[in-house]
Amino acid sequence: MSLKIENLTANIGDRQILKGLNLEIPKGQVHAIMGKNGSGKSTLAKVMAGHPDYEVTGGSVTLDGLDLFSMGEPDERSRAGLFVAFQYPMEIPGVTIANFIRAALQARLPEGEELDAVEYYEELYKKMDALKIDRKFTSRAVNEGFSGGEKKRCEILQMAMLNPVYAVLDETDSGLDIDALKIVSDGVNAMRSPERGFLVITHYQRLLDYIVPDVVHVMVDGRIVMSGDKTLAHKLEAEGYDWVEKETLATA
Amino acid sequence: MSTLMEKPAAARSAWPAWFQAEQRAALAEYEALPAPARKDESWRFANIKALDLSAFAEATPVASETRLIQASAGLAETSAKLVLGNNALLLREAPALPKGVIFETLEAAASNHADLFKKYFMAQPVELGSRKFAALHKARTSGGAFLYIPANTSVTLPIEIFQWVEGANASVFPHTLIICGENSSATVVDYFKSADRLPALACGVNDLHLARGARLTYIAVQDWSHETTAFHLNSTIVERDATCTALIANFGGGFVRGENLSRLVGEGARSEMFSINPVEGTREIDQRTLQDHVAPHATSDLLYLNALDGKSRTIFAGLIKVEPGAKGTDAYQKVKNLILSDDADPNSMPGLEILNDEVRCSHGATNGPVSAEELFYMAARGIPKDKARRLVVNGFFNSLLARLENAPLRTHLESLVAARLSIA
Questions:
Q1: What does residue B383 show for φ and ψ, rounded to 5 degrees?
Q2: A172: helix, coil or strand?
Q3: Contact at 8 Å (CB) between B175 and B206?
């Protein structure tokens, strides 16, 4: 049982961003992708979510054997158990967080079945408290006027409420101060389980001190070029990416 | 005023003789006036064919009186309620009205308070195109709602009025006349509802009058069947330091013509004119507005939101008129069209006529689709596209409702909008 990415290629317009990416995250593990700006990390997250600006030109992504791309619309992928926390979450004026998450949960129920409103709010408040999100936020419009840190916490709240099987966190640490980073990391760590896999995309090793990965991958120019344990992240932090590029060029 | 419930012995009472004479004159005027033509500026873009009223007939007394009374439920807490069906009183409740407040049918008020009636009933000239339909309204109106709030009186809980139409091709002529005395305050919710999904004609008039320092929040929830042809001609007069907040929600109607005039006649007067219009299918909502600044240092703020799906149409023609003496005017006018379909047809004609230099005015119209990024974000959380679109529309309207200060009222209207958009 795993999230498996095989030979994935994707374009934005005429430009190829993902150039044959391979990655497998067994259920129960946390994998990290590190890479420089422009290496294609965020593209990978958006392609998996089904963003319409990107065109998948080859390869596959499977969730426990289910082909993601044959599911079609992004909402089906989400309901199949994939969650992507975005680097820049969108603002939705006039739609409250409470109604937004409620609609997302309602969409997971069989037709004709109604979400229990009391249980829903109990659960929502519990998870907001854990993420130190003021309960008043339930009636605020999704991400509208939120600080960077509030947006990221709201992403983690959504993940906690939707209970995905596989979660992709795209630069969730950007825009977070150290306190917020700890809160968000605690939120993620609380969800680590043998029944769930995580892919944590980050630019900095700092996040991986809090969310300790089982495997670290390095992404260069649309491919995974190196994998290792958490010490690889420390080496990247200390020495940068140049040696990776030299090494991979040497072996290419 | 201690009566909890009053029911007329006869289904319909009669107007006083002097008003019956005026009605006969109005009918003659209706028949004499020409029908609006395509070339008339005040009917530009309108579907003139919808103005053929020959299929409609006099309404008969309602058959489902009990059901309509039961369905006349709005806010949890109100100070009074009036229910009318096919132009006749069905129910009057006034459990919590302060002393001196008069809340009865317009027909009763014509006899009981003839001086007030004569002073305020349709006292404003019809300037926005529907003189003919105003004459028809006057000729045929019966029932109606009359609310008078004496000076320095606050009606804390909202007052609700329900005006029903029932039966195929029935005609109703609802009229709501509200007179707010000096420094009085009130909130009124006026519901226009159909008992069935049959074609009907509604030709209604509202007169709102706010004396110095008065505060009125007036909400019209227009929920006629989608087969209904409707005219709603509204006039608001705002005197010195008075504030009127009026919101018109056009949930229903197949062809709806709204004419909304607000005249600021005293210094420091304020008029907020809001409208939310979910439109789909082949429905047409045609609204013409006038913000008439007569007095200096008054404020008017108009915001109309249209969400158009299918082959629906909206027409907005608005004018801010600043009269020569109205220095220090603050006037705003904005219409926003959220376009949900390539076949939708929004028409916006904002306008200014400024005869004084010391003013601040702005006007504008925007058309925009539902943001693809917003839809993607919602889809990424598992929300199907159709539901996501409805949530966006709901959010679009809620952003306006957020401007209402009364929290229970706002929550109630939010729930009506959500129900209208089929959002559980």
A1: -85, 120
A2: coil
A3: yes
Write down the pLDDT at residue B4. 22
Residue pair B392/B172 in contact by the 8 Å Cβ criterion:
no
Q: Which of A95, A97, A105, A140 to mutate to test the interface with B (most CBs of B within 10 A)?
A: A95
What residues does each domain of chain B span? 17-369, 370-424
Q: What is the residue whose two structure tokens read 């019809």? A: B126
Q: Could you confirm whether domain A2-94+165-251 is CATH 3.40.718.10?
A: no
Q: Do A92 and B374 touch (CB under 8 A)?
A: yes
Provide the CB-side half-sphere exposure for B11 (13 A, CA).
10
Q: Å from B281 to nearest chain A CA?
A: 24
The predicted structure's pLDDT at residue B12: 44
C-alpha dihedral, B149 to B205 to B25 to B148, nearest 10°: 0
d(CA B57, CA B260): 26
**Residues B262-287: tens digit of each pLDDT:** 999 999 999 999 999 999 999 999 99
pLDDT tens, position by position, B328-338: 999 999 999 99
Give the per-residue pLDDT at B13. Answer: 47
Mean pLDDT of chain B, nearest integer? 94
* Tokens representing residue A158 in the block: 């959504």
- B120-151 as b/e: b if 16+ CB within 10 A: bbbebebbbbbbbbbbbbbbbbbbbbbbbbee
A74/B384 touch (CB, cutoff 8 Å), yes or no: no
**What are the beta bridge partners of residue A21?**
A8
Residue A247, min C-alpha distance to chain B (Å): 37
Between vectors from CA B352 to CA B351 and to CA B355, what angle results, nearest 5°? 160
CB B91 within 8 A of CB B83: yes
Nearest CB to A104 within list B382, B395, B424: B382
- With a cut of 50, which residues of chain A have pLDDT below it? none
Q: Is A109 on the interface with B (CB under 8 A)?
A: no
Query: Residue B373: its pLDDT value, please?
Result: 93
The yes-or-no verdict on residue B11 having pLDDT over 70 is no
Distance CA A230, CA A239 (A): 15
Q: Using only C-alpha atoms, what is the Rg of chain B?
A: 21
pLDDT of residue B424: 66
Strands (E), B11-132: 57-58, 80-85, 88-93, 102-105
pLDDT tens-digit map of A57-68: 999 999 999 999
Token representation of residue B424: 């559980």
List the structure tokens of A152: 């990221």
pLDDT of residue A145: 93
Cβ-in-10-Å burial (0-12, 13-18, 19+) of A60 comes to middle
**Bridge partners, A34 (sequence order):** A202, A218
Delimit the domains of chain A by residue range.
2-94+165-251
pLDDT above 70 covers what percent of chain B? Answer: 97
Higher pLDDT, B201 or B4: B201
Q: Are B38 and B152 in contact (CB under 8 A)?
A: no
**Contact between B360 and B330 (Cβ < 8 Å):** yes
Dihedral over Cα of B376, B381, B386, B387: its sign: negative
